[in-house]
Amino acid sequence: MKDNTLTVPIIHPNGTPKRSLLAALDNVHRAINDAMDALRQAGPNQRDYSSDASRWELALEQHRIRGEALKFVLESVQAEIDAITDL
Predict the structure, then answer these.
(1) Pick from 61, 79, 60: which is nearest to 71 by CA?
(2) 21: how many CB neighbours lie within 10 A of its CB?
(3) Whole-angstrom distance, CA of residue 26 vs CA of residue 23
(4) Which end of the chain is less congested by CB atoms within 10 angstroms, N or C?
(5) Does pLDDT of 86 surpass 60?
(6) In this predicted structure, what is the pLDDT of residue 50?
(7) CA distance 63 to 58
């Protein structure tokens, strides 16, 4: 996205039904939640980075960034769900 403005579909008779849009987005929402759970379980283990503290810190930072990216996508999908629900 170039900006943070959410583009919401227009519900009309020739388009995808509202219920179908919401069902598809609900599937995406659940999949992202599953990915977030999997990412939490795959967090870096300090023992896997030897005695090099800088590698451990870098691994933690990269893991945090991945989590934030998934959180952003989850929040974006939820915003779209909310906007479509309000139509």
Answers:
(1) 79
(2) 19
(3) 5
(4) N
(5) yes
(6) 82
(7) 9
Position of tokens 């691994």?
A: 59
Distance CA 28, CA 33 (A): 9
Per DSSP, the three-state class of 43 is: coil
Supply 62's token pair: 């990269």
Which pTM does this prediction carry?
0.87
Residues 22-35, mean pLDDT to the nearest whole number: 98
Could you give the dihedral angle defined by the CA atoms of residues 48, 67, 38 and 3, in that order, rounded to the nearest 10 degrees?
-140
CA angle 71–43–38, rounded 5-degree value: 60
- The neighbour count for residue 16, using CB atoms within 10 Å, is 12
Terminal C-alpha separation, the chain: 22
DSSP 47: G
8 A C-beta contact, residue 8 and residue 76: no
What is the pLDDT confidence band of residue 18, given thresholds at 50, 70 and 90?
A: very high
